[in-house]
Amino acid sequence: TGEHTGNMPQETSSGLKTPSLFDM
């Protein structure tokens, strides 16, 4: 999901948008 960062919860919340930041 990528909520580990928590920088953009709105993006991770959807799970559709996964920037390189969360991809790491």
TrEMBL record:
Chain residue ranges for the region called Disordered: 1-24
Positions with biased composition (Polar residues): 7-17
Domain of life: Eukaryota
Protein name: Uncharacterized protein
Organism: Nymphaea colorata (pocket water lily)
